[in-house]
Design goal:
By secondary structure, this protein is mainly α. It contains 16 helices and 2 strands. The protein has helices spanning 3-18, 21-27, 36-45, 49-72, 84-87, 90-108, 113-136, 144-170, 174-198, 201-204, 210-213, 219-227, 231-237, 244-256, 259-277, 284-295, and strands spanning 77-78, 81-82. The protein has a two-stranded antiparallel ribbon with strand order 1-2. A hairpin with a 2-residue loop joins strand 1 (77-78) and strand 2. Helix 3 (36-45) crosses helix 8 and helix 8 packs across helix 9 (174-198). It is globular and about 55 Å long. The structure holds farnesyl diphosphate (FPP) and magnesium ion (MG). Magnesium ion (MG) binds at residues 69, 73, 75.
Length: 298
């Protein structure tokens, strides 16, 4: 997508406006992401000055949240590259996150009030979601509702706000697109949680099967715990550095109890619901975005 180059240029221009050399240097160390949020906005609102600015604002907020998340998760890699906290230190990562985040909000304050409200509100939810995520890693979470509420806030809320804001820009039905974005976001996070188990470290750009070690009981683990007979063995492996035998045992149990395939089915179901909410909108690329997102490998 050529338009994504425009978004990157806009982000760079915003950072140049901050007039701080260090910020520009740090921007160069941010690893290239999939830019799902920008793709979504541009497919709904088309490519114009306003939509490109909105994309840049959202990508800067997203980048800020990941800079902070890597400090919170004590992660050394992001998308296969050294993360800013690893390359510099935690302080630098937090402050650069704050700079990107506040510059994004400065620009957001100049946009349509309804868009500013939706995006700002989503960032509150995203922060609450991150707090919930951290809370949920303290003990083995067995509640599907808590997991769903957390991934809605942490991931889906911003994607929902992107779809709704793009619909506002284009004068389309905001509710329909918001629902599409919400379900796309939920499916996206579920797929992420599944890939953590099914993919290897090289493909993921971070250690594989790390979620459970970090205390994150994602959907495949939730289903496995429900279905498995030897629950105490699974509970003993929780938050433990897994040996290759232990990791293999978990994978075998998941395959025997069909928890991975059922998790994928749940993500697909959310994907179908998303597509259903925009079925009368005549926008085939929304179906495409969903398919590519579900079938991705990292
Ligand atoms: C990645 O989750 C984290 C998020 C999607 C949200 C993080 C949000 C905050 C830190 C709130 C602060 C927000 C701002 C704007 C400063 P993950 O750890 O499950 O995924 P990962 O494997 O990609 O790290
Ligand atoms: Mg993380």
């Amino acid at each position: 997508m050529e338009e994504l180059i425009e978004v990157k240029k806009q982000i760079k221009d915003f950072v140049i406006e901050i007039a701080d050399e260090k910020s520009l240097e740090l921007l160069g160390h941010l690893a290239q992401g999939k830019m799902l949020r920008s793709k979504l906005i541009l497919k709904i609102a088309g490519v114009n000055t306003e939509s490109i600015k909105l994309c840049a604002v959202v990508e800067m907020i997203h980048a800020a949240s990941l800079l902070h998340d890597d400090v919170i998760d004590d992660a050394n890699t992001r998308r296969g590259q050294a993360s800013v906290n690893a390359l510099y230190d935690n302080k630098t990562a937090i402050m650069f996150g704050d700079i990107l985040y506040s510059k994004a909000f400065t620009e957001l304050s100049q946009m349509d009030k309804r868009i500013a409200y939706k995006i700002a509100n989503a960032v509150t939810l995203l922060s609450v979601g991150e707090l919930l995520d951290v809370e949920l890693t303290k003990t083995f979470n067995k509640s599907y509702d808590k997991y769903l509420d957390m991934i809605y806030k942490k991931t889906a809320s911003l994607i929902e706000a992107c779809a709704a804001s793009a619909a506002i820009l284009a004068g389309l039905d905001v509710e329909k697109y918001a629902l599409y974005g919400k379900n796309l976001g939920l499916a996206f996070q579920m797929i992420d949680d599944i890939l953590d188990i099914t993919q290897d470290s090289a493909t993921l750009g971070k250690p594989a099967m790390l979620d459970f070690v970090e205390g994150k009981v994602t959907i495949p683990y939730l289903l496995l715990h429900e279905r498995i007979e030897n629950k105490s063995k699974l509970e003993l492996l929780y938050k433990k550095q897994l040996s290759s035998d232990e990791a293999a045992w978990i994978k075998i149990q998941m395959s025997e109890t069909q928890t991975l395939s059922d998790s994928i089915a749940q993500a697909r179901q959310l994907g179908l619901e998303a597509i259903n909410s925009v079925k009368d909108e005549n926008n085939e690329s929304l179906v495409q975005i969903m398919k590519v997102m579900i079938e991705r490998e990292f």
